[in-house]
Design brief:
The complex is a heterodimer of chains A (about 325) and B (about 350).
Chain A (H helix, E strand, L loop, with lengths): L11 H9 L5 H10 L6 H31 L5 H22 L4 H25 L5 H19 L2 H22 L6 H24 L9 H23 L7 H25 L3 H23 L8 H29 L1
Chain B lengths: L3 H10 L5 H9 L3 H4 L5 H27 L6 H22 L4 H26 L2 H18 L3 H21 L6 H17 L8 H20 L11 H22 L7 H17 L3 H15 L3 H21 L4 H25 L11
Helix pairs in contact in B: 4-6, 5-6, 6-7, 7-8, 8-10, 9-10, 9-11, 10-13, 10-14, 11-12, 11-13, 13-14
Chain lengths: ~325, ~350
């Protein structure tokens, strides 16, 4: 049985549609927007000011600390360097314990402490000239803060961990993997990391962990995964590297097609996320455009530009139509 | 969360809706199931793909029109460009519901405008005239070409044309007047968003174009070669715009302008002006952030947040002091902001008696 549309939760967009079509006058629209609390009230403003000043203040203080050490590097004795960083670290951890992880102040302090761990490792590497590769620094940093990240229930801290893992993977590939390897070998680990992160996050979210219900981190992971995978896929289409076995060139497009299929199935039927589907569509458009461009060779003096340009528009129109139809299907199901 | 029935019943009881209007809504409730706002990322995909297609097609078109060595290149460009623009307008009017037609029309219009303006530039050879023609073409297209992405781009082109004219006429400092107009325009458009609902096809794209244009112009403050020096003028103008927004906030909240919270707010804004007067980008970002939050507009909030980080970063990067002094300034500013946070929460805290229980 279809629910009465008037029993649906009122949204500002739809109320404005009523006003736009003349069914509701403007004064009534304005009153309706107040009734559904569309605009922030006193509490909302206080929360906004609180969060903005807290995040800005903390970020600037942290930046000040980082710049201080950057300036005083050569002049400070090693013991003092370590002493100051460790004192800051202890102060931040004490702040976290004081406020607790239930409050935003505690979470931001823990984020600051996690950044300070990286500063400490960097100073350690500089003072003792360990000769460690940069990827080892980021990997160790990630390992040391992993426990804090796990207990923090704070998505920005999980983002820091993901960034560190990506940096260490990328630097490892850049330093240790031979450049003559194919693109899939170079970007494959980055793709795997972000794809596993994405589905790991969705699994934990499915298990009902409340603070993981936000969508922006899995969307960033999806964007990173598609970026890492699109590069070798497009290179497999455009480059014919000598001495590279045929299966190596085919691997990236094959993985790309499989990943796209998985993402479409998962985010169309299991978890409704239109943004991730849009990212997938954009990647597919990029890869298919590269494929067509190989045939028509668009350029200044090439009439192949016209069919390639038209192909881009056709792909986009199809993608947008499918995305809109998907959104409507979700709406009618809910 | 209230549903539509509850909202409309309340509106009727408060006298905002008549019984006839409520009946009409009940008869047309089907629009709730058919009309959905297109998410911003789909609009971004549409715009991006149009640009991608234009970037692929345009070099070939320009090469075909401009590189013919026989005479009359300028008029060929003007005629072909005009035909493209008219065709684009026609396609958009005839097939307004089709996504493909909309994108094709956008690409044709972009290509046509570049050829038209390029041809005019080669023919006229006077910057002021070209700028006026560009602005006139954009104003005409805003009116007749019913494409939201183009209506977003046209104000940006107009602002860019004004900047070019200012540079050519050795009047670069006029940019500050443009900044103030952009800020006040933004305030008016978003504050009266609902009063201007019947013009939403113009208002919303322009409402997003103005902050982008403002941030773009303020980014010039980091380019010494631009030769613009009196950035404090933009700072003062943005400060006035921010005061205007605060006035409306206080008025809507029923707070007297002479009350302690109001005076604290105005003084706090004045204190903010002192360091930010040389960095109007920071003031602009805070202004757009506050405006976006007031209108519950996540796109404006996101845009302002990104540029706030950018402008703060560039401000400290460009300071002509040692890294040591910068570190103290950064940490000091951070401490001041945290202290300000405590002060504001204390001054603006609601009395316990009025505090709603959960």
């Amino acid at each position: 049985m279809n629910a009465d549309p008037l029993e649906l939760p009122a949204t500002a967009y739809q109320l404005r549609q009523f006003a736009y079509s003349g069914m509701v006058k403007i004064p009534a629209l304005k009153r309706a927007l107040v009734l559904i609390k569309h605009f922030p009230d006193h509490t909302g403003w206080m929360r906004f000011v609180d969060l903005t000043l807290l995040l800005l203040g903390a970020a600037l203080m942290l930046a000040g600390v980082v710049f201080f050490f950057a300036y005083n590097w050569a002049g400070l004795p090693s013991l003092l360097k370590f002493g100051i960083i460790q004192a800051a670290l202890i102060a931040l951890i004490a702040t976290t314990l004081f406020y607790g992880l239930e409050r935003i102040q505690g979470k931001v302090a823990l984020l600051g402490a996690s950044i300070m761990v990286g500063v400490l490792l960097a100073v350690y590497g500089q003072v003792y000239q360990t000769g460690a590769d940069p990827f080892q620094l980021f990997l160790l940093w990630a390992a040391l803060i992993a426990g804090w990240v796990a207990v923090s229930r704070f998505t920005p801290l999980w983002l820091v961990l993901l960034v560190l893992l990506n940096l260490s993977t990328g630097l490892f590939i850049g330093q240790r993997v031979a450049l003559s390897n194919t693109s899939i070998m170079l970007y494959g680990p980055l793709f795997l990391l972000n794809a596993l992160w994405l589905f790991g996050w969705e699994y934990l979210r499915w298990r009902g962990i409340g603070w993981m219900q936000g969508r922006w981190l899995p969307r960033l992971a999806a964007l990173a995964a598609f970026t890492a995978l699109s590069q070798p896929t497009q290179e497999a289409i455009t480059m014919n590297l000598p001495g590279i076995p045929w299966w190596s060139n085919a691997l990236a497009p094959f993985v790309f097609a499989g990943f796209c299929g998985l993402i479409i199935w998962f985010y169309r039927f299991i978890v409704n996320d239109l943004l991730i589907l849009t990212i997938c569509a954009l990647s597919v458009i990029g890869v298919l455009t590269t494929l067509i461009s190989q045939q028509f060779q668009p350029g200044f003096s090439s009439s192949g530009s016209i069919p390639v340009g038209l192909f881009v528009l056709i792909q986009t129109a199809i993608a947008v139509a499918l995305l809109r139809r998907t959104a409507q299907a979700w709406e009618s199901r809910s | 969360m209230m549903n539509y029935s509850q909202v409309f019943d309340l509106l009727t009881s408060e006298g905002y809706l008549s019984a006839e209007e409520q009946d009409r809504i009940a008869r047309n409730k089907g629009i709730l199931q058919t009309s959905n706002e297109t998410p911003w990322f789909i609009r971004l995909l549409l715009g991006f793909s149009a640009w991608m297609a234009a970037a692929i097609v345009l070099p070939f078109l320009l090469a075909t029109v401009f590189m013919d060595s026989s005479g009359g290149v300028e008029w060929r460009a003007i005629i072909v460009g005009t035909i493209f623009c008219i065709t684009a307008i026609g396609i958009r009017i005839a097939r307004s519901e089709s996504t493909f037609a909309g994108q094709l029309a956008l690409v044709l219009c972009i290509a046509g405008e570049i050829m038209l303006i390029g041809g005019l530039a080669m023919e006229v050879n006077d910057v002021a005239t070209i700028v006026m023609l560009t602005i006139a073409i954009q104003c005409l297209l805003i009116w007749v070409f019913q494409e939201p992405i183009h209506r977003f781009l046209s104000p940006l082109v107009i602002v860019a044309a004004l900047v070019v004219w200012g540079a050519e006429a050795q009047r670069v400092e006029l940019i500050h007047a443009v900044n103030v107009v952009l800020a006040i325009g933004m305030l008016l458009l978003w504050e009266y968003e609902d009063d201007l609902l019947v013009y939403k096809e113009f208002v919303r794209p322009t409402g997003y174009a103005l902050p982008v244009a403002l941030f773009g112009l303020l980014s010039l403050s980091f380019i010494r070669e631009a030769g613009i020096t009196l950035w404090w003028l933009s700072g003062v103008g943005l400060f006035i715009a921010l005061l205007g927004l605060e006035y409306r906030l206080l008025r809507d909240a029923g707070v007297s302008l002479l009350s302690k919270p109001a005076l604290a707010l105005f003084c706090g804004t004045l204190v903010l002006l002192i360091p930010a007067i040389g960095a109007p980008g920071i003031l602009a970002a805070l202004f757009v952030l506050a405006l976006g939050f007031r209108r519950n507009n996540r796109l404006l909030i996101g845009l302002a947040s990104l540029f706030l980080v950018f402008f703060i970063g560039r401000f400290y990067y460009d300071l002509e002091t040692t890294l040591l002094i910068k570190s103290f300034q950064l940490a000091g500013t951070g401490l001041v902001l945290l202290a300000l946070r405590y002060g504001i929460l204390y001054i603006f805290a609601k009395p316990e008696a009025n505090h709603e229980t959960a």
